[in-house]
Structure formats: C-alpha cells, structure tokens
Write a structure and sequence with these properties.
The complex is a heterodimer of chains A (113) and B (108). Chain A has no helices and 11 strands. Classes of the chains: A mainly beta (113), B mainly beta (108).
C-alpha cells in the first residue's frame, strides 16, 4: 500500500500569513496532486506534478504556488493566505499507467482567520 | 467539478437497506474510480472501474460509458458504511475530477 504523508495535520494562520503544506510519498510515484475540499464542491484540483521540477496548473490555482522538489516531496505554498483558503487539503499520488489508482494522504485542515 | 454530477447529495438508510449511488459525467473518460471518505476525512479507493461491473463484498460498481454514468450499489447496509462516497473520472490519464459526493448515513 502506497504511503502518502501530509504535514501539518492542522494549521491555523491569520490573513496575510505565509503557509507551507508538505506532502511526501514513499512509493516513487510519478504523479502527485494537491486538492482542496469544501462543502458542496467535492475535491477540486489546485496543482499537480508528474515529476521532480515539474508543475501543472489545476482548476483552482489562484493564490497557490506549488513545488515538486524531489520524486517524493510536493509542497503547497500560500504566500498571502486569505479566509477563502480555509479548507481541507489533500495530497495524493499515482503511478504512471491508466490502471493505477490514486492514493491520498490524511489531509491538512487549514483555517485562515 | 462540473463534469461530474453525483446523486443523491445525501441519503439516510436503516441498517439492512440497500443503497444506489449515481455518478453522471459529461465528458469522455478513460478512468472512473469510486472512493469512500470516512467521517474523519480520510479517503480510500473502493473501485477502479472504467467500464462494466465489478464486485467487492457488499459493494458493486457498474459503469456504462455509452450512457455516461456509473453507479455504486451497497447491499445490506451497515452503520459502518456511513460516510461520503465520491466518484472521480479522468478524461485523460493525468488528472481525476471529483463529484461533490453522496453523504450516506446508516441508522441502527
């Protein structure tokens, strides 16, 4: 079973604050994803990457940066956090190939006051 | 997002009843998956089912590409089935788009 670890699990910051969410996967999967989940919207894709140094824009990228530093590590950066970014954030990974499923981390609950 | 519509948004059952959850999509797909989200928030994959019918215990997933729909059937529901069920489709092999989910509550 693939392991995807997110940190922190919970984070509270103030408007304008700087936040970094971390994600590490230990199965050398090619693809990694950041989603946010809000009531009534399901999971929405923020950014994704198919390898170290690569970044692809998702559906709701505004206000977010991301960086894939290694095969294992994918970071989501909120440089000027706003209350609208209060959400539950999930990282996920997937190996190359159409048959492979998505493996999720446990989520990070972020509150921006 | 809008490419994937799930229904119903919520469902309340008595233990032992069956449930039918629907997922309709407006785009072509290469992949369809069903996920279960526990009340605490963690997500687990239930099925990878781009077409046809698959079974896993009390769960059955059926995807009919021509009709642009996928369903998840839960038989003999149990209180531990409570949670949110999400479908996700991939029009290509890179990205999965999620529906808003069906919140299932099974009462004893």
């Amino acid at each position: 079973e693939a392991a995807v670890t997110q940190s922190p699990r919970n984070k509270v910051t103030v408007t304008g604050g700087n936040v970094t969410l971390s994600c590490r996967q230990t199965n050398s999967h090619n693809y990694m994803y950041w989603y946010r989940q809000d009531t009534g919207h399901g999971l929405r894709l923020i950014h994704y990457s198919y390898g170290a140094g690569n970044l692809q824009i998702g559906d709701v990228p505004d206000g977010y940066k991301a960086t894939r530093t290694t095969q294992e590590d994918f970071f989501l950066l909120l440089e000027l956090a706003s209350p609208s970014q209060t959400s539950l954030y999930f990282c996920a990974s997937r190996d190359r190939g159409k048959q492979n499923t998505l493996y999720f981390g446990a989520g990070t609950r972020l509150s921006v006051l | 997002g809008q490419q994937v519509q799930q229904s119903p948004a919520s469902l309340v059952l008595q233990e032992g009843e069956n449930a039918e959850l629907q997922c309709n999509f407006s785009t072509s797909l290469n992949s369809m998956q069903w996920f279960y989200q526990r009340p605490g928030g963690s997500l687990v994959s239930l099925f990878y089912n781009p077409s046809g019918t698959k079974h896993s215990g009390r769960l059955t997933s059926t995807t009919v590409i021509k009709e642009r729909r996928s369903s998840l059937h839960i038989s003999s529901s149990q209180t531990t089935d409570s949670g949110t069920y999400l479908c996700a489709l991939a029009p290509n092999y890179n990205v999965l788009y999620f529906g808003s989910g069906t919140k299932l509550t099974v009462e004893p």
